[in-house]
């Protein structure tokens, strides 16, 4: 059974109902009824707030993992750059064209390898332990870059 109600709405609200009704190809009464049912169901479901909280918790956890992964990527890139700048000597002007050509070839192989790895779903972050929260070195020294530099036989200073 349906009952007729006379309602007063703002022009903006009535225009939005008209637009939604036209785009969804349903009656204006159907739009208003669906909106009212959604409004009433929010009040009825005590678990609705719990569902929102669970979703927010899940999103927070995902953001935490994303932040961790981004931090790992930035740190890895920074260590690599520091290492490269520390151990790579400047080339004489005559050797630079050959080095650029070799660098271009190596970069293309790197991009191909990266593409294959990503297609397989493998990531370096997945291979790392989940808890990488080692306490910071109080001296500010960087063990990784120092050990890599020492292994390469170069003095970091």
Number of strands: 0
Rg for CA atoms: 30 Å
Described by its quaternary structure, the protein is single chain
| Helix and strand pattern | HHHHHH
In short:
With 157 residues, the protein is mainly α. It contains six helices and no strands.
Give short descriptive properties of this protein:
mainly alpha, 157 residues, 6 helices
Give an overview of the whole structure.
There is one protein chain. With 157 residues, this protein is mostly helical. Helix content is 69%, strand content 0%. Helix 1 (11-24) packs across helix 2 and helix 3 packs parallel to helix 6. The radius of gyration is 30 Å and the shape is elongated. The model is unreliable at 144-157 (pLDDT under 50).
Fold topology:
Blueprint (H helix, E strand, L loop, with lengths): L10 H14 L3 H17 L2 H41 L8 H24 L4 H4 L15 H9 L6
Helix pairs in contact: 1-2, 3-6
């Amino acid at each position: 059974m349906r009952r007729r109600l006379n309602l007063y709405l703002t022009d903006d609200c009535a225009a939005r109902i008209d637009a939604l009704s036209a785009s969804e190809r349903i009656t204006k009464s159907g739009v208003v009824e669906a909106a009212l049912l959604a409004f009433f169901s929010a009040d009825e479901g005590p678990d609705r707030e719990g569902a929102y909280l669970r979703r927010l918790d899940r999103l927070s956890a995902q953001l935490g993992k994303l932040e961790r992964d981004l931090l790992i990527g930035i740190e890895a890139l920074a260590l690599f750059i520091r290492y490269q700048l520390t151990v790579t000597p400047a080339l004489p002007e005559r050797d630079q064209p050959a080095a650029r050509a070799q660098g271009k070839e190596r970069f293309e192989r790197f991009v191909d390898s990266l593409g294959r790895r990503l297609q397989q779903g493998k990531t370096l972050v997945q291979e790392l332990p989940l808890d990488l929260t080692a306490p910071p070195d109080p001296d500010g020294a960087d063990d990784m870059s120092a050990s890599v530099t020492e292994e390469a036989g170069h003095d970091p200073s």
